[in-house]
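During the second half of the funding period, the structural biology subgroup turned its attention to how the target accommodates small molecules. The most pressing case was flavin-adenine dinucleotide, which had performed well in the primary screen but for which no bound structure existed. We therefore specified the complex as follows and requested a full 3D prediction, including the ligand pose.
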Amino acid sequence: MARDHGFHEARILRVIDETADARTYVLDAPFAYRAGQFVTFRACGTLRSYSMSSSPDTDAELATTVKRVPGGLVSNWMIDTLVTGDVVKITPPAGVFTLRGSSGPLVAFAGGSGVTPIMSLAKSALATTTRVVKILSANRDAESVIFSAALDDLAARHPGRLEVRHHLDTVSGLVSTAEILDFAGSALAAAGDAEHPADFYLCGPEPFMDLIERVLLAQGAGQDHILTERFNPVEAVAEALCPETRPAAEKAASADAGGADLASGTITITLDGKTTTVGHVPGSTLLEHARRAGLQPPFSCEAGNCATCMGHLEAGAVKMRANNALDDDEVADGYVLTCQGVPVTPDVTVVYEY
Ligand SMILES: Cc1cc2nc3c(=O)[nH]c(=O)nc-3n(C[C@H](O)[C@H](O)[C@H](O)COP(=O)(O)OP(=O)(O)OC[C@H]3O[C@@H](n4cnc5c(N)ncnc54)[C@H](O)[C@@H]3O)c2cc1C
């Protein structure tokens, strides 16, 4: 596996059709990883993260599962273009949507392609712990259910330990509060069990996750036992596309950025080969500076967990608030998560290298 500026080349060993709109890519990528993590692909001149559907505890090979997003750049390119033998560029695995050292029930809510990391987590939990696992897999219709047979097979191999419930919008409408309560049932009672508390894992469309999180919190589940993986941070996208949605204080700082703050330094950003300079606003991240400059660099989790926003530091220094995505070598080579990197020198130059 070759390495290229923080990315590694991985050959596609197999492509598996899961549904009409979803494919699994089995990769020759001998990374160590934890169930529930993801890798970030460099493709189409940008970056996108995809979770592993494989488990490091039960699968010999690393696999990601990708669902087509209507109008989406990378998911369509992958599904329409990639074949066995092709080489893709990926980061090492990252992410914190992983198993904890707990013996309480693991209750997962998966919507659509959100089943990908849930599949990985379930396989590992069943193989390496004695935990009871419950999965609510919600999909539009029967044809769009990813891993339908694999989940049933897993349940058959772990009688009494894995319960899978399929929800189809075409049959029952959208997932409701009553259904969440009914499904979580006894696990919600275990939420208050100090010794064996339940962990709730949520991955799917934003409204689906938001409803489930609200219901679980209202029923007494602790926030620290609700783990979420957000594929589409919609608020962040809206903010990036529409500067008017930014808070007034930030807009004021932004307005200042070209004036008084210039005296304290400048942040120089190269994106798509074009270089832009903006005033240094102390305490703001590189990504925030880029947005103030009117740029739209790639980003995703905005929590330091994926490498979608990665840039290369050409001058100056930054401190990352969090970094769960880049390894020590990459940081030493000058790579930085721009969503977490706060300049600590007056002048900083960063290049988005895609
Ligand atoms: C940690 C993590 C793990 C993930 N794991 C998986 C996974 O396992 N499987 C999976 O399938 N996905 C996963 N995703 C989602 C994935 O990274 C991509 O976001 C998804 O595939 C869409 O990318 P795309 O390039 O196809 O679409 P994009 O090009 O990003 O477009 C997405 C949507 O936005 C719309 N859009 C794009 N630009 C604009 C614009 N300027 N104005 C208005 N609308 C616009 C498009 O029409 C489309 O509907 C994960 C995301 C994260 C952050």
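Two results from this model are relevant to the next phase. Residues 38, 48-51, 65-67, 69-76, 95, 113, 116, 229, 231-232, 241, 300-301, 306 surround flavin-adenine dinucleotide (CB under 6 Å). The radius of gyration is 21 Å.
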